[in-house]
Amino acid sequence: MSIEVNGRIVETDNEGFLLEPDDWDHAVAEVLAEQENINMTDNHWQIVKLVREHYEYSQCVPEARILLRTLAKNIGKENATRRYLYQLFPYGYGQQACKIAGTRKPLKLMLDV
């Protein structure tokens, strides 16, 4: 499968995750978010940015608990909850936020548990 972004073809797997994370950029994220029916806000971008930074550093997706710990430092403990993640990404952090951040499909989509 593939998506077209600004005249270029970006390859995805059968679930829409990028096959090559290096193909990711802001425009690709917008297309992926649109496919997920997510209107990206600053809050969405904050999560995507954190996932992307972690992925670029470690080549793996951060577990939700690690992401929540980072969010607690950045936005306060009261807002850094699983409920908050599900409000932004209703089909799950692993299934939607990681996809929009341009990571490969996490081996454990149980990141949300």
List the helices and strands and how they pair.
Layout: E1 2-5, E2 8-11, H1 26-35, H2 42-58, H3 64-75, H4 82-88, H5 93-100
Antiparallel strand pairs: 1-2
Short description:
With 113 residues, the chain is mainly alpha-helical.
Task: Name the descriptors.
113 residues; mainly alpha; Arc Repressor Mutant, subunit A; two-stranded antiparallel ribbon; 5 helices; 2 strands; 7% strand; globular
Textual characterization of the structure:
The protein has about 110 residues and is mainly alpha-helical. The protein has one domain (about 1-110): DsrC protein, C-terminal domain (Arc Repressor Mutant, subunit A). About 50% of the residues lie in helices and about 5% in strands. It is built from 5 helices and 2 strands. It has helices spanning about 25-35, 40-60, 65-75, 80-90, 95-100; strands spanning about 1-5, 10. The chain has a two-stranded antiparallel sheet with strand order 1-2. β1 and β2 (about 10) form a beta hairpin. The longest helix is centred in the middle third of the chain and has 17 residues, at about 40-60. It is globular. The model has no long low-confidence stretch (mean pLDDT about 90).
Count all strands and give the number: 2
Strand order of the largest sheet: 1-2
CATH superfamily: DsrC protein, C-terminal domain
Distance between the termini: 29 Å
Largest sheet: 2 strands, antiparallel
CATH architecture: Orthogonal Bundle
User: What is the name of the CATH class?
Assistant: Mainly Alpha
Give the uncertain stretches in residue-range form. Answer: none
Q: How many structural domains can be distinguished in the coordinates?
A: 1
CATH topology: Arc Repressor Mutant, subunit A
Radius of gyration: 13 Å
Q: Give the ordered list of helices and strands.
A: EEHHHHH
Global outline: globular
Proportion in helices: 40-55%
What portion of residues belong to β-strands?
A: 5-15%
Secondary structure category: mainly alpha
Mean pLDDT: 91
SS element count, helices = 5
